[in-house]
Design brief:
This protein is of the alpha+beta class and 126 residues long. The chain has one domain. Helices cover 48% and strands 13% of the residues. It has four helices and three strands. The chain has a three-stranded mixed beta sheet, with helices on one face. The radius of gyration is 14 Å and the shape is globular. The relative contact order is 0.17.
Length: 126
């Protein structure tokens, strides 16, 4: 499996998200991260997505399951709700998402990124 990580304009994401992953027909993985003001913020999203997808792959949680859940979550997102789809108790990848978030938070401390500042930028993406 080849793994490619790309930073792209936010409006080019497949749906409203700052980080996305998907496999091509050959089983190669692409991770897309929305462009942000700080390379460290982009790196944190990339690491989160990589950890999440590896755990999903290991545990048999498919891309189609994750995509379907995320798209439905976004379509039905209540006004003012800033939760990530993976935080939802019904998310098929909730455990994997939480583990990835924990590693993301640990890495943010090592990169001297203030978590509230990082979260604010992620949440401010349109």
């Amino acid at each position: 499996m080849n793994i490619k990580i790309e930073v792209i304009p936010h409006d080019q994401q497949r749906y409203p998200t700052c980080g996305d992953w998907f496999f091509d027909a050959d089983g190669n993985l692409t991770i897309r991260v929305s462009r942000m003001s700080d390379w460290r913020h982009e790196a944190l999203v990339a690491v989160h997505e990589l950890v999440e997808v590896l755990l999903c792959k290991q545990r048999g949680i498919s891309q189609s399951e994750v995509d379907a859940f995320d798209k439905q979550f976004e379509a039905n997102r209540p006004e003012g709700n800033e939760d990530e789809p993976g935080d939802d108790p019904d998310a098929p990848y909730r455990k994997e998402h939480f583990f990835a978030t924990n590693l993301e938070a640990l890495l943010s401390a090592e990169l001297d990124v203030e978590w509230p500042t990082y979260e604010k930028e992620v949440q401010s993406l349109p």
